[in-house]
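Support request from a user on the community tier.

User writes: "When I paste my structure tokens into the form, the page sometimes reloads and wipes my input. The last time it worked, I copied everything first. Here is what I submitted, just in case something in the input itself triggers the reload:"
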């Protein structure tokens, strides 16, 4: 059984999809904990499911690296990222760039979802950037987090056509409809050994 830690900053729709999937006894992963950088409303999904939660606020640390170290320790308290079965850390809407020290602690057992077909449109405004570029197609990527910004190895992608006159909010919502099942499928296949994490020992 793969143990996973999920990190969020907002409403936690991807987290909810993982919780719902993990409720199936045949799902090969268990959510060991859910963490956030703020009092995110999505933490309520975890609390309702009886999953341990924690909040590690950057403002409570002197530096980004210190914040990352405290965050890493909170995850490791739940036996994710330690021992021979390292588990998996899933950034599912965490709206902060993780510090290099944190990334080195967990990567490649550290994945993220991004609302574009990487390497196209990296960064915080991927949907807006796709629309501004007049893209006919975009989508969602699940990738390994490395020390760059959305530069880690791509694990899975799903595409969606951009509709004429579509707003950023509407396109982002349609991308989210793809994102949730793609993340669940990716976690399942990592747990079952069907999908290898590049560089994993």
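"...and here is what came back when it finally went through:"
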């Amino acid at each position: 059984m793969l143990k996973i830690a999920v990190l969020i900053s907002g409403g936690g729709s991807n987290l909810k999809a993982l919780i719902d999937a993990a409720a199936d006894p045949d799902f090969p992963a268990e959510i060991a904990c859910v963490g956030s950088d703020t009092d995110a409303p999505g933490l309520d999904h975890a609390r309702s499911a009886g999953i341990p939660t924690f909040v590690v606020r950057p403002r409570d640390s002197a530096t980004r690296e210190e914040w990352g170290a405290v965050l890493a320790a909170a995850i490791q308290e739940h036996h994710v990222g330690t021992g021979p079965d390292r588990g998996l850390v899933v950034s599912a809407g965490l709206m902060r760039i993780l510090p290099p020290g944190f990334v080195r602690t967990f990567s490649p057992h550290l994945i993220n979802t991004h609302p574009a077909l990487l390497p196209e449109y990296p960064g915080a405004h991927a949907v807006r950037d796709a629309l501004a570029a007049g893209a006919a197609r975009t989508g969602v990527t699940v990738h390994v987090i490395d020390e760059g910004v959305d530069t880690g190895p791509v694990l899975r992608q799903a595409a969606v056509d951009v509709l004429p006159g579509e707003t950023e909010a509407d396109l982002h919502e349609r991308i989210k409809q793809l994102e949730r099942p793609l993340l669940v499928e990716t976690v399942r296949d990592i747990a079952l050994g069907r999908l290898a994490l590049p560089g994993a020992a």
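Agent notes: The reload is a front-end session timeout and is unrelated to the input. Residues 168-191 form the longest helix (24 residues). Strands lie at 2-8, 29-36, 53-55, 88-91, 110-114, 137-144, 154-161. Escalated to web team.
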